[in-house]
Amino acid sequence: MSFAVISDWHERAVKSRQRRRRLAWRRFCQNGLPVVGLGYAIVLLIVAIVGPLVTHQPTIDIFQANLSPSWTHPFGTGQYGQDLLTQIVRGLGGTLLIGVAGAAISVAIGLTIGIAAGIFGGWVDAVLMRLTDFAFSIPTLIIALFVVVVTGFSAWNIGLSIGLVAWAGCARLARGLALSVRNGTLMESATLAGGSRWYIATRYVLPQIASNMMVFFVFQVASVLFQSTTLIALDPQYVPLTGGQLPPGTNLLLNLLNGGGGSYIGYRWLFWFPLGVYCSMVIALLWIGDGLQALLNPQQPLRARRFAIWHRRRPIRSGKGVNLYG
Amino acid sequence: MRGKRLRIIRTIGLRIAVIPILLCMLVIIGNALGHLTPATVNPSSAVPGLPAAKPTPFWHSVYASFVAIGTLHWGTSPEITRDLVLRSLEISTILTFGSLFVAALIGIPCGILAALKPRNPIWQAVSAFSVLLGQVPPSDMAVILIFTFCLGWHLIPLTDGWGTFGDAILPIMTVACFNIGYMVKYTEAGMREVMQRSFITAARARGAGTAGVVVRHALRPALTGLLTFFGPQTPMTLFCTVIAEQAFAIPGIGTMLGIKVTTYGAPAFGSGTTLSVTLFIFGMFIMVLNLLIDIAYLWLNPLAD
Amino acid sequence: MADFVAETITGANSGLSGQPVLDVRGLVVEFERADGTIHAVNGVDFAVCPGEWIGIIGESGSGKSVTLMSLLGLLGDGGRVTRGHAWFEGTDLLQLPNRRLRSVRGNEIGVVFQNLAEGFNPYLPIGVQIAETLVSHRLCTRRTAHRRAIELMRELGIGDAKARFHQYPHELSGGMRQRAMIASAVASEPKVIFADEPTTALDSTVQMQVLALLTDICRKRGTSVVMVTHDLGVAAHTCDRIVVMYAGMVMEEAAIDEFLQHPMHPYTLGLRAASFDPDQPDRPLRPIPGYAPALLEAPHSCPFAPRCHLATARCREHVPALRRIGPAHRVACHHVQGENET
Predict the structure, then answer these.
(1) Taking a C-beta distance cutoff of 8 angstroms, is the pair C128, C169 a contact?
(2) Among candidate residues C45, C55, C4, C56, the one with its CA nearest the CA of residue C22
(3) What are phi and psi of C179, to 5 degrees?
(4) Inter-chain contact A304–C32, Cβ cutoff 8 Å?
C-alpha cells in the first residue's frame, strides 16, 4: 500500500514539474518578444560561428568602391570596395566575444565580491561595499580605455578591459541576494549542520541566486556592448563625417558602426546596415532578458491565452494550487 | 521629524566629506597606472629613434598632478589656459545637466503613460522606441540627429562649436536619447509595480481620481525606483557627453583633455599626469552627480536612512 | 445554474427597520486568468439596513473581499462584474460610470482595509492620507480637512494627534495604523463602511480595542457596516446578521441569535466545529476535510458537496437555491426544508 502511495506521489511530482515548466515557458513568451529575441540571437550566433568558415576576407577593389546594395553585394560595398555583408558577418563573432567576455568577467568579479560581502558580513562587508561604492563613482571607461591602450586593440582585450571595471552593479545585486538568502532559515540550518563558509557559499547561496544572475548576465552583455561602442568611438581613427578604416588585425562590427558614419551622405547603406545589425542584436538581448525576468519574478498573473489555436480544457483542480483572492 | 532631518544632513555631509578622499585616491591610481607601463604611456619612448625619457619618481608625478589640478593647468600644452579650462568645465556641465533635464522631461511622462495604458499600442510603441533610442551608440545618434534635423528637415542650422542656443540643442539631444531609454524603462517598470500595490487600491477606495492616485501616491515610489537604477548610469552619461562633444566639435572637457587612443599604442594620455587629471575631473563630475541623486533619493523616500 | 435572485432578508426581519441602504442582487464576478475564467462570485445577494452590522464569513478564497471590492469598482486586473445589481440610494452602483462611482467611494461608502503595512502609502504622512477623503471629494478646504483629520485621530484615541499627523505609516504601530485607517474611512461620514478583515493582523487585545472603537464610532453615527472576517468570534461579538459564503455563493444567512442557536447548513456547522468555542472548551476541533474548489467553472452542483458528509446524488447534480426557512434565516442546502415546503 505504501508503495502505491509513493509511486503515485512520484507521478504527481513529475506532472507538476511538467506543468511548472509549461507555465514557465508561457511566462517567457508571454508577449512573444522574448521568443523572437531568442530565435534571432541563435541565428546570429550560428552566423557568427559559421560565417568566417564560409567567407573570405573581403577583397579591396577601388573600382568597386561605394556600390549601392545589389544582388552581388546585398549590403553594398565600403569605401575600398569591400563587401559590407562579408565584413559584418566576419565582424559579428568578435563583437559577440566582447559582449560575452566582458559580461562574464564582470559577473565573475561582482559575484565573488558580492557573495563574500553577503556571507562574511562585518568588516569584510564594509570594506568590499566601500570598494563597490568607489567603483561606482570612478570614470570606469577611462580606465578601460587605458587598459586597451596598454594591452592592444582586440576584441578580447576590449571585453577584458570593460569586464574589469564594470562589476560594481553585479556586486551590489549579488550582495543583496546573498543577504536575503543568509537571513532565511535555510542558512541557519546549514550553519547548524556544520557547513563551512565555502560550502555554504557554493552549495546554498550560489544556486539560489544563480537564476537572478542569469538575467543580470543577459542585460550585462547588452551594457558591455554599449560601453564598447563608446570606447571605440573615442578612437581617433573615427572622425565623424570623414569616415574611417579598420585597424589592422581586427574585424569588428563595432568598427563598421563608427566607420560608416562618414559615408552617410551619399552611401546610407554603410551607416544603416551595421547600425541595424548592432541595434537589433542588442534589442534581442534585452527582450531575452525581459522574458527571463518575467519568468523569475512574475509580477503580473498570466493573462488568458487570447490567440490560442486550440483550446486546451483542463479539469477543475481542487487544492491550494491557485490562491485566487488572497 | 527633526531627528530624520538631522540624519539626512549627516548622511549627506558624510558623502561630501568622502569625496575629496576618493578624488585623491583616483589621482594616485592614475599615476600608478601611468608608472606601471611607462613604455606605452610615455610618448617619447614610443617614437622609434628617440631615447626613452627618464621616468620621474612616483610621488613626484603625484605631486605634479595635484599641482596641475590646483592651478588648472592641465597636461603639457601651454595653450590650455585657466580660462579655457573653466569654460570647458562650464560647457560640459551645461551639456550633462541639460541632457538629464531634457531626458527627465520627456522620459518620465512617457514611462508613466506607458505603464498606465498597457493595452494602448501608441504608448507601448513609444516605450519600445525609447528603449531602442537608448541602445543606439551616441556617435551614431549624433550623425542621425544631424542628418535628420539639419540636413533633412532644415530645422536647426548646421554649426560647429559652441556659443549660441542652437549649438546646444543637438548635443543635448544626443546625450538625452541615451538617458530617455533608461528613464522610460525604469519609470514604466516602477510605475507598474507600484500600481499593483494595495495602498493604491486603498487610495482609490478613499475616492482619489486617476490623476490624484498617480501624482500623489504612485509617482514618488516609482521615482525612487528610477533613482536607484539611475545612479550607476551617471558615468555612461558623462561618456556620452564626451562623444557628443567630439561629434559636434564642442570645446568641452572631453575635447580639452584629448581623451583618445591610437591603435598603434602611442601617446595615449600624454603622461600619468594627464591620465590622473582626467580621472580627477571625471570622478568629480560623477561624484557630484551621484551626490545629487542621493539627495533626491533621501528627499523622495521617507523610509531611507 | 439556479436562479439566485430571491427575496432578501431586510432589517425588518432582524429587528431593525427601514429601507435597505444597500441592496445587492445576483452579483456575479469573474476573473480572466491564464488557467481560464475564474468564477469568483456566483450570484450573491444581501441587503444592508441603516445602522446594521453584517458579517460575511467564510474560508479564504470564498469571494468575500471580491464581493465588496466589485461593488466599488476596485477589482484588480482581469476582474469584471458580469451580472447583478447593487442598489444604493436609488442608483445601481454596478451600472455607474467610473466618475460617478468615484464620488461614492470614500464619500458615501468608506473602506477599512486589513491592517497590512501596505494599507497606507508609505511615502505620505498619515494625516494627509486621513484627510484625503475630504480633500479629494472637495468637501471642505485643505486646512479644514487637516483640522478635521486631527480631531478624528483624537476621537479614535490616537494620542498626540498633532505630532502623529506628520508621521509616516512605518513610524506607527499596527494598532495605531488601524485606528488611522478607521479615521480615514469615517472622515466623510459615509452611510456604509466596508470593513475588509479589519482586525485580522492585530493581536487579540488590540483587536478588541479596535473593534470597540469601530463599534462605538459607527453606532454613534448610525453607519451600517459590512464586515468581512475569518473570525467567528469577532463576527458573533459585533454583527447583527451573518452571511456565510462558500465558493462565491451565499450558503446561509441568519440574524445573529438564530445563527448562534440554530445553524442549519452543513458548512456552517463544519466552520463552527473547526473553531474554538469558549463554552465547550473540551470539545475537540474538527477541520473540514478537503480544500476549497478552484472555481474554474461556474458551479453546476452544490459547491460544498465534495466535502459534505451529507452529500447525496441530488447535491452533486443541482445547485441548491437559497431558501427562506424562518423569519430571519435563509439556507442553501437540499437537506434543509424551506418554510413553504413542509
Answers:
(1) no
(2) C45
(3) -60, -45
(4) yes
The CATH code of domain C2-108+192-331 reads: 3.40.50.300
Nearest by Cα to B184 from B127, B132, B134: B127
Strand, coil or helix: what is A236? coil
Provide, as residue numbers in chain B, all residues whose Cβ is less than 8 Å from the Cβ of A229.
137, 139
What three-state secondary structure class fits C292?
Answer: coil
The better pLDDT of the pair A202, B286 is held by B286
A226 touches chain B (CB under 8 A): yes
Runs of H (alpha helix) within A193-268 = 197-200, 206-233, 253-259
Cβ of residue C133 closer than 8 Å to a chain B Cβ: yes
Judging contacts by C-beta atoms under 8 Å, the chain B residues touching residue C124 are: 216-217
Q: What are phi and psi of C241, to 5 degrees?
A: -145, 145
C55 with C30: CB under 8 angstroms? no
Does ipTM exceed 0.90?
no
For the beta carbon of residue A130, count every other beta carbon within 10 angstroms.
Answer: 12
C207 contact B CB<8A: no
Q: Do B205 and C132 touch (CB under 8 A)?
A: no
Q: Kind and range of the H or E element at B190?
A: helix B165-195
- Contact yes or no for C291 and A317 at CB 8 A: no
Closest among A47, A195, A55, A171 to A117, alpha carbons compared: A171
A123 Cβ contact partners less than 8 Å away, ≥ 6 residues apart:
none
pLDDT digits (tens, 9 = 90+) for C153-166: 888 888 888 888 88
pLDDT single digits (tens) A120-133: 878 888 899 888 88
Question: Which one-letter DSSP state was computed for residue A81?
Answer: S
Give the global pTM: 0.80
Chain B contact for C127, CB < 8 A? no
Q: Mutation test of the interface with chain A: which of C67, C68, C296, C304, choosing the one with the most A Cβ atoms within 10 A?
A: C296
Could you tell me the domains of chain B?
Answer: 1-37+57-74+267-305 (no CATH), 94-252 (1.10.3720.10)
Strand pairing category for C329-331 and C249-255: antiparallel
Contacts of B289 (CB under 8 A, 6+ apart): B96, B234, B237, B238
Q: Could C78 and A301 be called an inter-chain contact, meaning their C-beta atoms sit closer than 8 Å? A: yes
Cell of B268: 595615449
How many inter-chain contacts (A to B, CB under 8 Å) are there? 134
Interface contact B120, partner C, CB < 8 A: no
Encode pLDDT of C10-62 as tens digits.
Answer: 544 444 456 788 888 888 888 887 667 888 888 888 888 888 889 998 887 78
Question: What span, in angstroms and rounded, lies between the C-alpha atoms of B74 and B70?
Answer: 9
End-to-end CA distance of chain C: 24
Helix residue ranges, H only, chain C: 64-71, 98-104, 126-136, 142-155, 161-165, 174-186, 204-221, 232-238, 256-261, 266-274, 313-317
Stated length of chain A = 326
Cell 507600484 identifies what position? B194
Q: Which of residues 136-155 of A touch B (CB under 8 A)?
A: 136-143, 145-146, 148-150, 152-153
How far is B3 from chain A, CA to nearest CA, in Å? 25
CB contact at 8 A, A24 and A295: yes
The angle formed by the CA atoms of residues B275, A250 and A247, to the nearest 5 degrees, is 65
Grid cell locating C303: 459547491
Tell me which chain A residue has its CA closest to the CA of residue C196. A326
The domain spans of chain C are 2-108+192-331, 119-187
Q: What SS3 state is found at C192?
A: strand
The one-letter code for the residue type at C281 is: P
Interchain contact, B209 vs C118, CB within 8 Å: no
